[in-house]
Write a structure and sequence with these properties.
With 117 residues, the chain is mainly beta. It has one helix and nine strands; from the N terminus they run βββαββββββ. The strands form three sheets. The protein has a three-stranded antiparallel beta sheet with strand order 1-2-3. A three-stranded antiparallel beta sheet has the order 5-4-9, with no helix packed on it. Strands 6-7-8 form a three-stranded antiparallel beta sheet, with no helix packed on it. A hairpin with a 6-residue loop joins strand 6 and strand 7.
Length: 117
């Protein structure tokens, strides 16, 4: 093994490994993307990135990458749903995108479940 992977940001274990696009810690089970590893250690620099690492900005159009359940709605948001004209906010519980979705109305999304279109 010639590549140097960063240690786990949760437990600092040196035994991390790659699983697809994620890095995984076998000791604590924490999973993270390599792009987010630098921002976890160095503090938040104000840049919000999508699920694949693209930088998001106000007014962007994004696509939901996985189906989401919505409280109070019998059907959730399906993967592939386009969301136009997003607004970046410092929300609660990691919900950092404020938007309006057709058929659902105003809501907040996590940047980890969207991809820049």
């Amino acid at each position: 093994m010639t590549e140097n992977l960063p240690p786990c940001p949760e437990c600092s274990s040196a035994y991390t490994y790659e699983m697809g696009a994620l890095l995984v810690c076998p000791e604590c089970g924490h999973e993270w993307t390599p792009a987010s590893a630098g921002s976890v250690d160095g503090g938040e620099d104000g840049v919000i990135r999508d699920a694949v690492g693209n930088v998001l900005a106000d007014g962007d159009t994004v696509t939901v990458v996985k189906s989401l359940k919505v409280k109070g709605s019998p059907a959730g948001i399906k993967a592939g749903t386009k969301v136009r004209n997003i607004r970046l906010v410092s929300g609660v519980d990691g919900h950092d995108i404020d938007c309006k979705i057709d058929g659902f109305g105003a809501m907040q999304l996590k940047s980890s479940v969207v991809k820049k279109a």
